[in-house]
Amino acid sequence: MKKILFLLTFIIVSVFANSQTTEDSVKTTVNNLFIGMQNADTVLLKSTFADGAIFQTIARDKEGNTIVRTEAVQGFIDYVGKQTKGETDERITFGSIKIDGALASVWTPYNFYAAGKFIHCGANSFQLVKIKGAWKIQYLIDTRRKQGCNQ
Q: What sign results for the dihedral spanned by CA atoms 114, 116, 120, 124?
């Protein structure tokens, strides 16, 4: 009986430790995106995205209708590369993180600052895929608003 209890405890601890390591790896990829933004480091920034990644923003048109705007990941990387170090600062908190095999889903509320000035807030929704042992952002969609922000 003690052997079975020990074996079950070992399995539970191993599964928990592995999920923590996986969650930390996912967080590292997401954090590297924002470190790349802060440092205007296009190499680090590009390393966080999978080939063919999709980058979208939920916005409103002139009539107030909800629209989804698709942006080129490379365009985003080029924009960040033109900034000076510290100019763009997106401060996130990790909400939920869900992982199933090579798929991870991450929710991060944020406040965005440019040159130290608050610009907007919202939430990011990331879909990451584990490719060749590394987590990569395959899909990123966000919201942007100026009201109801906790700065």
A: positive
H or E, element range at 38: helix 2-38
Is the CA virtual torsion 77, 51, 58, 151 positive or negative?
negative
Q: Which of 17-21, 34-38, 98-102 has the lowest mean pLDDT?
A: 17-21
| pLDDT tens digits for range 27-50 | 999 999 999 999 999 999 999 999
- From CA 140, how far away is CA 111, in angstroms rounded? 16
Q: Which residue has the tokens 């954090």?
A: 31
* C-alpha–C-alpha distance, residues 151 and 148, integer Å: 9
pTM here? 0.84
> Residue 123's closest CA among 104, 97, 95?
95
Give the tokens for residue 107.
């929710």
Q: Which position has the token pair 């390591």? A: 21
